[in-house]
Structures are given as structure tokens and as C-alpha cells.
Amino acid sequence: MEEEPTKTFKELDAWKSGRELRIFVFRQIVPILKNLKEFDLLDQIKRASRSVTHNIAEGHGRFHFLDNYRFCSQARGSLNEVLDQLITCHDDDLISDDLYQLGREHFNKSLRILNGYMSWLKRSSAAKVAAKDSPQSSPNL
């Protein structure tokens, strides 16, 4: 009998979507900021976009719904930080309207998927607690 392979964070849609955002930032935004010598903003958007996937991956490795949820909350904060940096780039005329809109689309998709994953984590945690407290799971007295 073959064992089922271990599922990794790479299989999570939330991580995949965050990765797409990170790749977009590194391929589309970073070269522009580098050319314009916007090094502070460049460093911030690189770190924030990396933090999204890093936190999702770390949370997945915790094997506890609420720990995972907390890391996803950090990922969501970093995701919003990327959005703020894209808005800054756009407001400062560093990126085009089209590039900004594309960044927004990546953000919206990532946020929607991450929020769905976080909702699942909360429901799963609540179901686990309810099952543990259920009279069926208690030993007969």
C-alpha cells in the first residue's frame, strides 16, 4: 500500500496566489524602482511581497489551526502593505495606470483566496473543539 505524499504549503491556493503577486512585483515593479533609484520603496515592496508567502508557509508548518490562522493574519497584513506600496508608486507617477491596475488585480485575488483559507482555518478549529467537547468523545463514566 502506497503512502499518500505529504501535502505542503506549495499546494495551498493562498500560497500560490501570493507567489503570483510576488513574481509580479519582482518582474514588473522592482526593475522600474531600480531604474528610478527608488531604493527605499524597492526594499519595502520586496520585503512585503516575500512576507506574504513566507508567513503562509510558516503557518502551514505549525499543524495547528489557530497558529496557522495567526501567520495568515500576518500574511494579510503584508499583502495590504504591498497594496499601499503599489498605491504609493502610482501616486508618485512611478508606475503606469495599467501596471497599477494589474497589481490591484493580483492583490484582490490574493486577498480573496487568503480570506477564504483563513475562514476555513477558523471553522476547522471550531469543529475540532466541538468534537473534543462532544459527549461522544468523552469516556463512559
Topology:
Layout: H1 13-35, H2 39-60, H3 65-91, H4 97-133
Helix pairs in contact: 1-2, 1-4, 2-3, 3-4
State the helical fraction: over 70%
The CATH class assignment is Mainly Alpha
Mean pLDDT: 92
- Percent strand equals under 5%
Individual helix count: 4
User: In terms of per-residue confidence, which ranges show pLDDT below 50 for 5 or more consecutive residues?
Assistant: none
User: At CATH's second level, what is the architecture?
Assistant: Up-down Bundle
Shape: elongated
Assembly state (oligomeric): single chain
Question: Could you walk me through the main structural features you see in this protein, from its secondary elements to its overall organization?
Answer:
The chain is mostly helical and 141 residues long. Helix content is 77%, strand content 0%. The chain has a single domain, classed as 23S rRNA-intervening sequence (de novo design (two linked rop proteins)), CATH 1.20.1440. The chain has helices at residues 13-35, 39-60, 65-91, 97-133. Helix 3 runs antiparallel to helix 4 (97-133). The chain is elongated and about 65 Å long.
Keywords:
single chain; 141 residues; mainly alpha; de novo design (two linked rop proteins)
